Predict the structure.
Amino acid sequence: MAVSIFTAVPRAPPVAVFKLTADFREDGDARKVNLGVGAYRTDEGQPWVLPVVKKVEQMIANDNSLNHEYLPILGLPEFRANASRIALGDDSPAIKENRIGSVQSLGGTGALRIGAEFLRRWYNGNNNTATPVYISAPSWENHNSVFVDAGFKDIRTYHYWDAAKRGLDLQGLLDDMEKAPEFSIFILHACAHNPTGTDPTPDQWKQIAAVMKRRFLFPFFDSAYQGFASGSLDKDAWAVRYFVSEGFELFCAQSFSKNFGLYNERVGNLTVVGKDADNVQRVLSQMEKIVRTTWSNPPSQGARIVATTLASPQLFAEWKDNVKTMADRVLLMRSELRSRLESLGTPGTWNHITEQIGMFSFTGLSPKQVEYMIKEKHIYLMASGRINMCGLTTKNLDYVAKSIHEAVTKIQ
Amino acid sequence: SSSWWSHVEMGPPDPILGVTEAFKRDSNSKKMNLGVGAYRDDNGKPFVLSCVRKAEAMIASKKMDKEYLPIGGLADFTRASAELALGENSEAFKSGRYVTVQGISGTGSLRIGANFLQRFFKASRDVYLPKPSWGNHTPIFRDAGLQLQAYRYYDPKTCSLDFSGAMDDISKIPEKSIILLHACAHNPTGVDPRQEQWKELAATVKKRNLLVYFDMAYQGFASGDINRDAWAVRYFIDQGINVLLSQSYAKNMGLYGERAGAFTVICSDAEEAKRVESQLKILIRPMYSNPPVNGARIASTILNTPDLRKEWLVEVKGMADRIISMRTQLVANLKKEGSSHNWQHITDQIGMFCFTGLKPEQVERLTKEFSIYMTKDGRISVAGVTSGNVGYLAHAIHQVTK
């Protein structure tokens, strides 16, 4: 048998969050709880297809004038315009001044990747792979891979999570920005920071923006939870819009996976804000070339659902309502978990559970305590101590709270 | 104030899209768009297959959730895809010594493979493409970090395969280079090797120890027979050549905008396939995390539901037959017009595209005088020809070539 060219291909480790779910599936214990992967669950622990999505899908299915033809390379025009409008606001000066662009992408990941590929080719010179890219410590683990695979050679972290005080390390963050080389790229979570659930306050965002402006740092926003974090689209977009109002040129990678529950349809959008229309046109023309060699043109189903919903005042209102339903359930689980831990007298403080925002909470559990939770209690969470609040239900809250209490008291 | 993007050049317009843009602006009622490669029915309309509509209804009735697919895609889809390409009796398929991941149609599947080769195939950076090839092949491999070379393929003098030229060039390709082959319905020429020629190509490729990457975007769509169209891929594998393969369901299932495709690596054994699969996932995750479900679910439902699969085979043959019929009618009409040229290549060529042999000046006249739009290289999409306009097309071609 001929020696294979792939003999030397090593086995890659599985992506942690999916391995967690795989382990959860194989667990036969009836008490098991999955607090791992970031997808919304109902109080029955089930996935939830938004009622407005069901409605719109039926509309699409009944529309015989629709076919499966290719979308343009940059995507469905109605989707692109509406998606960017959602992020920037109806009254955005950038939209009025016609200096925004949009690229329909395969989820938030796809939008990040197109943006990263573009920046590597065209930002801070031509093909400058040495431009530092700063990612928060911690961050979504895929951020690092996106920028590495896009060709950047100098990926750094910026201070973000203060484990001791369980909150934002603003001073560390600002210091890193002061020290960062000019023109460095900073990946900012627009809201509901993953995995910590800890966002800067508006005042803190103002300080961040001031430093970034002074030091010519490039803001690349990752917005995967707009509406889902606070329940308000506008509130969750405040930071992005503030930066726009401060005159920044920026990118914003948007995901509609969570706020529309369209996870597997891969609906995302890269919003580009530039100084003027001419610049944006040239940027889009180059992004088109990047898209053409990555996926040629994006999938149509998810974009149609979102575009139809956002373009209709009635459907839009229904959607906002569905989003608020999800956000409210998360908020309820936060307050219920915190109150139980405080009632149990679990050592430590637990206000961070309700102060954090979005799908995730950085519990502060140590790796050993996490191991205990998984092995002894069959409660699956990330080694970082991150839990998905959506995995909590009125039925399992008591069990989870008691288990956390045990883990904290038994394991130091 | 200045912008970060002041130095960013305007990207050149896509030549094929440019054709469609110009076509849209033309007010001539007789205008014909023979540019972009999407199937049209005999009324010139997009065609949604009946088996696709049925599959969609079946899927809708199941009321499934929208949870993320695995990184490698929908398992029922990838398995059915591999079986479709390799054949149910394939030893490689039955032994499990392959990995198939869902890709974003043909482009996405090609790109995954290109990135995989860049990262793990250290023997060579060179990818050999046929001359000419699909315009997007070059930038895909280049963006993945590989270098492009070419082997002779199309003979413009005969409008057919330059077989001796191809064999000559391929026999000189440095060992362990990567060679890309169009499995069937070569794009843009429509010129495919005959089976005896494929056999010789396989022997040469094997002798030169080349890594073979097949692009199969038209299985079923070329001859109307899925097994016949996959013959070359299956033959190569039978000869012990462990190929890479990209598949698209854009044309053969009319799923264009749903982006259904697959990338396959034939491996030494199932264990190697698992290692390769794990690395493909590492490549996919930072690109788009996991693939879109809709197209894959439709394709999977069709392939895995016997009645729908039967219906699909009939419909894809119907599309292929209509194309073949238009080729025949075009040649017949050219004869009727009194053309003295040899147009046999139009019926010899296969698939969606036809390299007419028309020169740029003639193409320009066709556009300016007759509002017939095609790419400058003389390529026409036969899918844009209908029984209603084939006479007009023949007339116009005769006018610019007599």
